[in-house]
Design goal:
With 251 residues, the protein is mainly α. The protein has eight helices and two strands; from the N terminus they run αββααααααα. This is Tol-pal system protein YbgF. InterPro entries: BamD-like, CpoB, CpoB_C, TPR-like_helical_dom_sf, TPR_rpt.
Length: 251
């Protein structure tokens, strides 16, 4: 009788221990589930944050792109504006030079030839200035074909006078204005070769660079602009060339 009771009691203790272990395991599982739920909730929050960050990044990227485009546009507009200012300066210079030439003393020159006096009168000064000024004003008013004709006439009559290089320069500008960039390059190059000491050489090299850029010949464009910067560093043309090179990302 005693033995049977002992066996039953031991069996009961074993069952009780087993039940306790199961409770512990279940509690552990419940704890793990709670932790998983917490982790999932945290992950969910992080995903929301990531989505928010992605949105912010997209917005910021778009903003940066817009700002970059705006900056590029401003740089381009600044280059154009500076070119306009430079052209106005050139016009003022042309007018001042014309005024000086017209007001200069062109008295007849008296020379002795034996017992006779020979009077030499420079009677073409008015014609020379008038022809050049007329051609230039035609250009300023957008009458490119007529202006080209008159500048060519000027160069035929006066191929080696003070304004010959200027006349050649404006022939190049006419082609540039007509978007005939290859012809513009040829005219500017001809100026550089025929009048290497002329005051329009820096401007011609600058516009050569612009012209090459407009026909997607960036290598020659960069070479022309760098030549302006290196050869005429103090000129307005060099300043504009530097701006263009920076716009292209060239140091």
């Amino acid at each position: 009788m005693y033995k049977k009771f002992l066996i039953v009691m031991i069996a009961g203790l074993s069952l009780s221990a087993c039940t306790g272990n199961q409770d512990l395991v279940q509690q552990s599982l419940n704890n793990i589930k709670d932790e998983m739920l917490g982790i999932q909730s945290t992950i969910g929050d992080m995903q929301v944050q990531i989505q928010g960050l992605d949105k912010d990044i997209r917005v910021n990227t778009e903003s940066i792109n817009r700002n970059s485009d705006a900056i590029s546009q401003l740089r381009e507009e600044m280059t154009v504006t500076n070119s306009d200012v430079m052209e106005i300066k050139e016009r003022v210079t042309e007018l001042e030079r014309t005024k000086m030439e017209l007001s200069a003393d062109h008295s007849p020159i008296v020379m002795k030839s034996g017992d006779e006096e020979v009077i030499i009168v420079e009677d073409n000064i008015q014609d020379k200035i008038g022809l050049y000024t007329y051609a230039y004003e035609l250009y300023r008013n957008g009458k490119y074909a007529e202006s080209e004709t008159k500048f060519n006439e000027f160069l035929m009559k006066y191929p080696d006078v003070e304004r010959s290089d200027n006349a050649m320069y404006w022939l190049g500008e006419i082609k540039y204005a007509e978007k005939d960039y290859e012809s513009a390059v040829m005219k500017f190059q001809e100026l550089v070769e025929r009048y290497p000491e002329g005051n329009k050489v820096p401007d011609a090299l600058l516009k050569m660079g612009y012209s090459y850029g407009n026909i997607s010949d960036k290598d020659n464009a960069v070479k022309s602009l760098q030549k302006v910067v290196n050869m005429y560093p103090e000129s307005d043309a060099a300043r504009l060339a530097t701006q263009k090179l920076r716009f292209w990302g060239v140091n």
